[in-house]
Amino acid sequence: MFLPLSRFFRDIQLGIKNLLLHKLRSFLTMLGLVFGVGSVIAMLAVGEGASMEALEQIRKLGSRNIIINAQKPASEQTATNVRSFLSIYGLLYEDVARLADTIPTLKRIVPVKVIQKEGRLGKRAMDLRVVGTSADWFSLVSRPLVAGRVITADDLQQRKNVAVLTEYGARRLLATKAVIGESLRMGSNYYEVIGIVQSESASEGGSMQTPDQQTDAYIPLTVAKEHFGDIFTQNKSGSNIRENVELHQLIVEVSDEDMVELSAAAIERQMEIYHAKKDYNISVPLALLKQAEATKRIFNTVLGAIAGISLLVGGIGIMNIMLASVTERTREIGIRRAIGAKQRQIVAQFLIETVVLSLTGGLVGIGVGMLIPWVITKIAGMPTIVSLTSLVLSLGISVSVGMVFGIYPALRAARLDPIEALRHE
């Protein structure tokens, strides 16, 4: 056992020595693998970062939640040229009771009413999205509490004029003033600021939207209904467009994650019965999550395949150089065979050289692959994630490519006729 092992290390030393005799050629040969491994790691890191960011946004909506949004029917979108037009659409208070009574898998239903109002605090003012909702909103839509408290069931029951602001809105309105306890005017009423929460800005242009925005002010639903009613007037292009919308959104929590998709189908059937105008849309974060995860796997596979082409090119470069090396060292091979070297020893010698080349190129490529995502994050601000799996996989593929493309030159060297090799000049 000792002799073969010592011979193995001696072959490694000999292989490294032969590669160092042609430093520039060895370096250029490794470049293909360096850029191949680096591109594999970098592209997977970019893809992983983008996918994880999208998945995290979906997870924040809750894997057991179903979001029903009111939407204006397409038939009423074109009616804005009427001088005074009342559009009746959206979700109803009755929908809450009907869904709770007919679908046993639903655990909680949170109604949401949205009103656009100017918020004013002293001389400061900004447009706010006033959200009338229940106490359960803050448990279904997990947002960190920065200061104070959130709305409670007691606030709804007693119709208290209280408001919870987002951190963004609080900074814009309150500036250097004390946050909790300030009186905020919205419409013709004043509300005591009782809490501050962080928020997630709504996604733009996508089919999935977060239930909150940066300019939200949350008040009890009972207060919103009493102060603002259900009819809202908008002035567009000289026309008064009035809308009668009881609820703008329902956030439904399902008792079991396995029942989410079945519950969504049951909700769809229920809504179709009482909303013939199709004045709603249903978003299922769990279904979006599964779709995003499947897309992520496909995306990573495509990126890996594209980057793997670079490794293939690097492997071809190794084969080309090793074939040239066999030609250059034909006489050396003949001498070794003449003094008793076996074919497997010649094969081992050349394979060791290709493995050293590919291993070194792979290690340098790992460094390049970790550097590129860091630069992308620093310059472009894009999230990137370099996983241990991508590092190990890239290095393993690099070494495997070196071995596969080194086998033919090694076998060709081992099969040289010793007599013909000794005559080679």
What does it look like?
With about 425 residues, the chain is an alpha+beta fold. The protein folds into two domains: about 1-55 and about 290-425, no CATH class; about 70-280, no CATH class. Helices cover about 55% and strands about 20% of the residues. The protein has 14 helices and 13 strands. The chain has a six-stranded mixed β-barrel. A three-stranded mixed beta sheet has the order 2-11-10, with no helix packed on it. The protein is elongated. About 35% of the residues are buried. The model is unreliable at about 200-210 (pLDDT under 50).
Can you summarize this structure?
The chain is of the alpha+beta class.
Described by the principal axes of the CA atoms, the overall outline is: elongated
Give the number of helices: 14
Sheet bearing the most strands, described?
6 strands, mixed, barrel
Mean pLDDT: 80
Helix content: 55-70%
Number of strands: 13
The tally of structural domains comes to 2
Which range does the strand content fall in? 15-25%
The rounded Rg comes to: 34 Å
**Residue ranges: pLDDT <50 for 5 or more in a row?**
202-208
What is the distance, rounded to the nearest whole angstrom, between the alpha carbons of the first and last residues?
38 Å
- Strand adjacency order, main sheet: 3-4-9-6-8-7
H-E order: HHEHEHEEHEHEHEEEHEEEHEHHHHH
Q: What would you call the structural class?
A: alpha+beta
